[in-house]
Amino acid sequence: MAKKAKDNIEEPLEKKLWKAADKLRKNMDAAEYKHVVLGLIFLKYISDAFEELYNKLKEGKGDYEGADPEDKNEYVAEKVFYVPPSARWTWLQGRAKLPTIGKDIDEAMDAIEKDNPSLKGVLPKVFAQEKLDKGSLGGLVDLVSTATLGTKEAQSKDLLGVVFEYFLGEFALAEGKKGGQFYTPESVVKLLVEMLEPYEGRVFDPCCGSGGMFVQSEKFIKHHQDYYKKNNGKKLSLNPADHISIYGQESNQTTWRLAKMNLAIRGIDSSNVKWNNEGSFLNDAHKDLKADFIIANPPFNDSEWSGELLKQDGRWSYGVPPTGNANFAWIQHFLYHLAPSGKAAFVMHCGAASNKGQAESKIRKRLIEEGLVDCIVGLPTQLFSNTTLPVHLWFLKREVSDKKHDVLMIDAYNLGVMSESTLRVLRIEDIQFISDTYKNWKQKSSKYQDIAGFCKSVSFADIEAKSFIIAPNRYIERVKKHREQPFKLDINKFITNGINYSNKINKQIENINISENTYKVGFLNVFDKSFDKSKWEEIEVSEVIADTVSGSWGNDEPKKDNISVKVIRGTDLPNIPLFNLKKTPTRFLNKSKVEEIQLQENDIVIELSGGSKDQPTGRSAIITKELMDYFGMPLICSNFCKVIRVNEEKVNPYWFHFFWNQCYEEGLTTRYENQPSGIKNFQLDEFITSELILLPPRPIQDEYAEKLKAVFDLKNMLTYTAYNLSKTIDKAFENLYYEFDV
Prior knowledge:
This protein is about 40% helix and about 15% strand. It is α/β, with parallel strands linked by helices. Among the domains are: about 10-180, Ferritin, CATH 1.20.1260; about 480-535 and about 695-740; about 540-685, Alpha-Beta Complex (Adenine-n6-DNA-methyltransferase TaqI, Chain A, domain 2), CATH 3.90.220. A nine-stranded mixed beta sheet has the order 3-2-1-4-5-7-6-8-11. Helix 2 runs antiparallel to helix 7 (about 135-145). The chain starts with a helix and ends in a 5-residue tail after the last helix.
């Protein structure tokens, strides 16, 4: 019953809309398509809000008695955008199937801008372009029509805000590195804001992207209403958004438009969010601004920031930044705009904390000597779509009583969880843990303490001793490593295996005389010649297969009549000769089912599903008695693999195994792959009924297979021995280098 209830959970609106919209994208580039989709969503929002107020005005009850629903001033008074008749959603939706729908939407955007000066130059007019399929555009209009976004009820739930933010994140992922130019991951922004605490004042972001820092600052205020009640006394109660005034600058006009729309849907005044294509260094749009809070994610390591033109600039109070890297130009730009009691929080490439370049080192030293650096947080990798490198969060403050104060170092490298195969997010509890640590440290609370592997309050003297490098990992004490058993027991199995297999290798070398020159002569006599294939038979692969056996994933926990089994997966197949299968899972399966599908000696396991861009499916392994003895319990293959059991009267199992490996190496198996859902699937049945195998008479097969099997076995022994010797070296050095808790 619980499972059924889970199945009935409705998918969130933002995910449903994204999936449907992404299907309609077809071949259009994500960077262009985002303006189409987000523009339409914004249009639907302002139209919903307009229609709701329009109907109240038309009804004329209560406060709206005698009102004119077409009077623009009525909408200005209610902070609702006025939408002229030809731009209203109901009118556009009625024209969604017409070939002129793109032109109609562009004209609607123009009309809205004319009637709402605050939106002038903001709305996208990209809908009439030829490469945008009008059938798909009409479908997108119908899709967006299913969502109610701008009514008072929807606004109270911030439905559009959630949808807009989710779409920005998904488009950033779709664009990869370029996505980082307009979007900072939500969990990183939340952490910055939670630590900065912008309760009241001027908030500035001179590289504001799509405005995420401002949005999160307003959310912070909404979530901390208790603070205002406690500190407000008898003052008038303010709208949360009125506690802060925002200032921003963006050099990319299309990104600036996203920011203006992103802020407009939340009722945030964006009149001081400016655009010019020269950017903050060459054309500072807020020259006289002294902000209480600066929060930003500037471009990393920008080499084309016009540094040559700005060497004498008045902002470089702590040293002239290098012309080839703008990191310390951004840091000093932030400091220039900070009020006397102002604070700054920003994302910065990790190299800025430890770079030994002459200019960077001098500036960093001055910042620390002046007591401006308060805290550095090292973040985990894979949080950003535009870089896999670790980054730092810097926290600076202008107001200091003692310039040689401690600096808090936090290493959050091990926090967060993977939300996608290549993307990590910080959880609510991670954000809380980091921000609470910082706040407790600032308040000199007894709750703060240095934690090995996570945080340390570092003295000025310690930083000076390390040449003013401020990378957290240089100061934080390493956590003692944990091991389940004493070193002697841990390493013993690897030494023993190395010795045992070295002896086996010696015996195998003696058996095949590989150390003698006669082996080389004998091997070449067998294989370096022209082969008489007149009696070899070319037959369909399926004719040499006695049976194919499907796999199973089994159960997590034992059920009635279940027994333990080891499940061989596709990822295990390359490791089978090594017996390096620690991660091969133990599962539980009905005893009779195990007897039906249990692996046998000489079975050949084929991977059917998985693979990657550079790793085709169709990998294989042959099951040996030694492998079955190694596990000491029944073996089965997973449901993503299949077992080939050959007819040993027709084909030597090793002949077939070597044949299969040759097909895989030559790429023949890739012809039988398909990708119906983004995951590669190998069509085994089609392969075995379409491909041919060349078979010598059985005695000749056995002769050649036996010669190659001897080398194959030796290779496996050598590989496994090398693995054990490598582990012996690693374990010994680990024991020497690290501290352990036991």
